[in-house]
Structures are given as C-alpha cells and as structure tokens.
Design a protein that fits this description.
The chain is mostly helical and about 80 residues long. Helix content is about 85%, strand content about 0%. It is built from 3 helices and no strands.
C-alpha cells in the first residue's frame, strides 16, 4: 500500500466535516429564530424562517466544501500523473 499524501488527508478531513456543518447550520438557524420568537412574540414564524436560513447556509457550506474538494482532488491527480497543464 502506497503512503498517503498530506493532500489526501486534508481532503478526507474536509469531507468528514460536511454532515456536522450542515446540522450545526440548521440547529443554529432554528434556535436563533426560536429565540427571536420569544423576544418578539412572533411564535412560530421566526423559528421557521431561521430553519430555512439555516438550511440554505448548510447547503452553501456543503457546496463550498465539495468545490474545494473537487479542486484539491483534480490538482492532486494532475500532480500524481505528472501532467503539466
């Protein structure tokens, strides 16, 4: 088995955070809206808004990590095959 390059470990680390960052974005959005509902007396509307803002933030996080992983993966595959493009 060939030794694993540092970029491979970085890629694995980045991809392993996808689920956690998605869930955290949802939870923070929901509870932020829930808290604002309590302060402003608008239950449950801001909790719903916060949930969907958190959902959008989670999807954006996943998109960014996948774009970074894709560019890292393509860069490491080019350097490992020896192409000069």
């Amino acid at each position: 088995m060939a030794p694993t390059s540092p970029t491979t470990w970085q890629l694995i680390g980045q991809l392993s955070t996808i689920g956690m960052s998605f869930v955290f974005a949802l939870v923070i959005g929901f509870f932020g809206g829930y808290w604002l509902d309590g302060v402003l007396g608008t239950k449950p509307w801001l909790a719903f808004v916060g949930f969907f803002v958190g959902l959008a933030a989670g999807v954006l996080n996943v998109y960014r990590v996948m774009q970074l992983a894709s560019s890292t993966s393509s860069t490491s595959s080019k350097s490992s095959t020896g192409s000069n493009s």
